[in-house]
Amino acid sequence: MAESLISSNQYIIFTLVKETMGIPIDLVREVISLNSHTLYQIPGSPDFFKGVINLRGQVIPILDARSKLNFGLNSPPPENPKSIIVQCDKEHFGLVVDDVEEVATIEDSSIEDAPGHLAVTHKDRKIGRISGKDNDKDRFVFLLSKEFLFDDNNSKGSLIPSQFRKMLNEVSNKKTD
Amino acid sequence: MQSGEEYWDLFFDEVETHLESLNHQITNLESSPNDVDIVHEIFRIVHTIKGMAATIGFQSIAKLCHKMEELFDFYRKNPRSVENSTIEIEIKALDSLYKVVESISENGEELSSCNKISETLCNELIEELNKLQVSGVNLSVTEDKNLNSIIKQKPIPKANQFKVKVKFDEDCQMPSVRAFMATEVIEKNGNLISSVPDKDQFNDVEIISEGLTASILASQPIENIKENILKISDVIKVEIEAIAEEKDKQYTSNVTRSLEENNSLKKSSPLEGINPLSLDHKMIIERLNEKEQEELFNGTLKAYHIDLLLAEDINNPEEQLINLVNNFNDYIGHVIHSIPSLEDLEVLKLKRPPTQTISSIINSESELADHNEEKQRRKMQFILLINGTHKNVLDFLSDACEINKVEVKEIKVSSPDKKTVENNTENLQKHEVNEAVHIAQPKAKHSDIKTTFVRVNLGTLESLMNAVGELVINHNKIKLSMGDSPSSEILSTTQYLNQVTTKIQQLVMSIRMVPVNQVFSRFPRFIRDISRELKKDVHLVQEGENTEVDRIIVDELNEIFIHLVRNAIDHGIETADEREKYDKPKSGLIKMQAYSHGNNVFVTISDDGKGINPDELKRKAIQKKIITIEQAEALSKDEILNLIFATGLSTAEHVSDLSGRGVGMDIVKSKVSSLGGRISINSILGEGTSIRLSIPSTISIIQALLINNKSGLYAIPLSEIKEIVSINIRQDLHQIGSCSIIVLHDQVIPLVNLEKYLQASSPENFIEDLPPESLVVVVACEGNQYGLIVDSLVGQQEIVIKTISNRANPEGLINGATVFGDGRVAMILNVEKIIKLYLNDNPIEEIPEGFLLEDQGNDFDERIPLLGK
């Protein structure tokens, strides 16, 4: 409740295997380059946890967005992965992504649920439209929510790249009609 | 929505503390119903709660408090023994308060049920008050006419309030006597509200000769009073001033204050009135020759009484004090007497190693425990004779040593009347004038005994701790980047930086520590209720309430203690009749003792009840298939008692016929071990049972052994480790079934392939890969020992625990992580969990019989003394 009140409609836009996604800026503390930190393994942790890093004295578990979303696992790993430090229930996690692009404003009116008939649906999957500047076309991004990232019951929910593409296309076609 | 909602959290937080102390005080009152102080204290607490509740708008709480307060107000005004019925009803009211507060905090609003509860009790309280008032009228009249008449006249009619200033002749021989006479006149014609100086200061000649200012409540025309005072000899002037309206409040509060002071005055024994300076005085007279005495009397020599407390971070207080005394003797005067004496100091200095206040974060806990003793070491009292003034003494002191607190009193001796000086110590007092000069803080008064607290959010502390951690890490970085030959300035600066950060870390740790009394204080009431419920006569003895424990642990302890104490009363203590039969005192005893040692806090909860019948316990265990008959035969008595902690030993229906306390002891045990603690039991049939807990005093910093394995750096809590051995794979290793074992001190110790649990891809048959000489860390778990094979040891170190989200650690294989100065991170292993996984892989059937029942053999298992033994 409180979160939606202070929501600024701003999202951190990042790429994951050529696809564009966004995460509400309220969840994000900072963005760091992962290469400058050593990863330490956590024994007995789920696969999508790559380990922990020491971020200025704070021990932060690193969550691989690709593994967590089961998305593009076969693609070559990024050269300089970034980690978006997100906060959830007073705990911090680092979300490993390929690159971070920008901070974009997406109005609530430009956000809609992902088409239900595609892949595994999840009520927290939303598609947002970023209005193109000048002559650029509007872009459609997949918006991650806190629940989607951290709700353990849905940890198996995965995105399949081809379906993901299809899903975005469908939304964008509908919009441009 | 109610107004002031933003203060709710604060309110609930504070009210809880107040209710707790109220609970405590009411229970106290029950055992000493004549104690006026407790009545006052209770009144004050209830009043505070009332005020808070009214401000926020919780009418049901405010109303109820108001009625509770009225009842205690009655006792306040009518000092008498508090009736049992009153305590009963107040306890009931208190419980309702708890209920109402809980209901509001749960529902987020004041429901009508709250008002109902409040009203019912208000009525009962009013009834009680009425009853008391009827029976109490006579009492209140006879008890203390003056006190009551003043309060009953509240508000005091302004017209009758005056300020009376009395001046005495400069040559007045006995000003204190005159002052007493003046107050007597006032009291005959009205009431003395307050006076400056206070009555008990009248003996101080210098103060009283300045004159007397009294606030009075006149019952006779003020002119009469003035005349009567003027009649007293040596009184040269009496000024009368009507008290202005705006001062009203102040004086009303003065009334109460002076009343309270009167009360406390009445109670204090005559001895307390004797000024400690008179002893000094005697000392001076005894130790000085006539010439010196002469000089002292005519002022060329001066004598000072100095109370000194050295600053905290002094390494060797004894040496400092010795130096100080020597310096005094060499340069400015003569120390004629000191406590402790120079000789004592020399002895102490030799006996004690220098403290390491600066060097270690590490010992902060034990230091806290020694705090009082340490403070004692920094204290000194002495009498000094010098030529000079106050200022010199203070300058000299602050130059000579780092001082936390000092109090310098001049001992003045006016011209000698030798006969009285030598023979009459009482007279000495009259010659004495003390002039106190305070640097730093004023000397602690009675009221200072209560510690004042600042509320701090634990999260804020946590952040502070993290920030300090970063400071330490960055300090280490600077050190590393300094290279081989830094300038001496940089070197000394970084060293100083290190000291400061260490100190900050210590302080943050100490802030987290709270006295175990926070939990203990709930028990007098708890035991009272339980013993009534079970109709047993029980009394409670608590020791070591001031032992300090990490805030986080304290909350957990409560539940554990409640379980243990309940069990002790329920199953341990016999009924009064039974006890009489066994020649025991009628009232059962529950003892809760706490003390700290090293990094641990030990708590013993014992009773003098019937004890646990080992045979019965054994029978149950066999019946429940926890052990086989053969195993049972091989058990020692201690081992049998320890069966009580086994899971599934008893279910509810078996509890009553079991001699002891089966219920939930396994839960208690798992709770204790989740805190990193241990539990043990000792019981003698017919004499009682004692349960001892050993709990780390803090869970945020622990001693750990650092080990290196293929998969990384790990920390194993030192409390889990029994020993570290180096084994020869060829000779020492044995194979039993699928288990590899070694035999150490005649014990079978299964070897655990640690790496297998730390890294999913570890080879199954690890033995073959081991180097011929391997290191084994022997750990204790549930009374058995296991060997963890490690690659290499890094060292032993105090580590700060940083928690790791359960999401990343769903199996709980680790207990968090720690960060080192160089930025590396090590996982802290949860040994118990790893052993559990090992036991899953190697089911018990395969482990040779008897091995499970091997002696615990840990040092913790020493015999626990039973009550009265």
Spell out the key features of this protein.
heterodimer, A: 177 residues, alpha+beta, OB fold (Dihydrolipoamide Acetyltransferase, E2P), six-stranded mixed sheet, five-stranded mixed sheet, 4 helices, 11 strands, 38% strand, B: 869 residues, Four Helix Bundle (Hemerythrin (Met), subunit A), Alpha-Beta Plaits, 6 domains, five-stranded antiparallel sheet, 47% helix, disordered C terminus
Question: Secondary structure elements and their pairing?
Answer:
The complex is a heterodimer of chains A (177) and B (869).
Chain A lengths: L1 H5 L3 E7 L2 E6 L3 E6 L15 E7 L2 E7 H5 L12 E7 L2 E7 L1 E7 L5 E3 L12 E5 L8 E5 L2 H5 L10 H16 L1
Parallel strand pairs in A: 2-11, 5-7
Antiparallel strand pairs in A: 1-2, 1-8, 3-6, 4-5, 6-7, 9-10, 10-11
Chain B lengths: L7 H24 L4 H21 L2 H19 L6 H24 L4 H32 L1 H8 L8 E8 L6 H14 L1 E7 L8 H5 L2 E7 L3 H10 L3 E8 L5 H20 L8 H12 L2 H9 L3 E9 L6 H16 E7 L2 H10 L12 H6 L1 H7 L1 E8 L3 H11 L2 E9 L6 H6 L1 H7 L4 E3 L19 H24 L6 H25 E3 L1 H4 L2 H11 L4 E6 L4 E3 H22 L3 H6 L6 E10 L2 E8 L6 H10 L5 H5 L3 H6 L9 H4 L9 H10 L3 E7 L3 E9 L4 E9 L2 E6 L3 E8 H4 L1 E3 L2 E6 L2 E6 L1 H5 L14 E9 L2 E7 L1 E9 L13 E6 L5 E5 L1 H11 L28
Parallel strand pairs in B: 11-13, 18-27, 22-24
Antiparallel strand pairs in B: 1-3, 1-4, 2-3, 5-7, 5-8, 6-7, 8-9, 10-12, 13-14, 14-16, 15-16, 17-18, 17-25, 19-23, 20-21, 21-22, 23-24, 26-27
Q: Can you describe what's shown?
A:
The complex is a heterodimer of chains A (177) and B (869). Chain A has 177 residues and is α+β, with helices and mostly antiparallel strands. Chain A has a single domain (2-176), classed as Beta Barrel (OB fold (Dihydrolipoamide Acetyltransferase, E2P)). Helices cover 18% and strands 38% of the residues of chain A. Chain A has helices spanning 2-6, 65-69, 146-150, 161-176, and strands spanning 10-16, 19-24, 28-33, 49-55, 58-64, 82-88, 91-97, 99-105, 111-113, 126-130, 139-143. A 6-stranded mixed sheet of chain A has the order 8-1-2-11-10-9, with helices on one face. Chain A is globular and about 45 Å long. In chain A, 33% of the residues are buried. Mean pLDDT of chain A is 77; it is low at 1-6. Chain B is an alpha+beta fold. Chain B has 6 domains: 5-143, Four Helix Bundle (Hemerythrin (Met), subunit A) (Up-down Bundle); 153-267, Histidine kinase CheA-like, P2 response regulator-binding domain (Alpha-Beta Plaits, 2-Layer Sandwich), CATH 3.30.70; 277-442, Alpha-Beta Plaits, CATH 3.30.70; 458-512, Orthogonal Bundle (Helix Hairpins), CATH 1.10.287; 517-696, Heat Shock Protein 90 (2-Layer Sandwich); 702-861, CheA-289, Domain 4 (OB fold (Dihydrolipoamide Acetyltransferase, E2P)), CATH 2.40.50.180. Chain B is 47% helix and 21% strand. In chain B, the strands form 6 sheets. Chain B has a 6-stranded mixed sheet. In chain B, strands 6-7-5-8-9 form a 5-stranded antiparallel sheet, sandwiched between helices. Chain B has a 5-stranded mixed sheet with strand order 11-13-14-16-15. In chain B, strand 20 and strand 21 form a beta hairpin. In chain B, helix 2 (36-56) runs antiparallel to helix 3 (59-77) and helix 4 runs antiparallel to helix 5 (112-143). The radius of gyration of chain B is 35 Å and the shape is globular. Classes of the chains: A alpha+beta (177), B alpha+beta (869). The interface between A and B is medium-sized, with 23 and 32 residues.
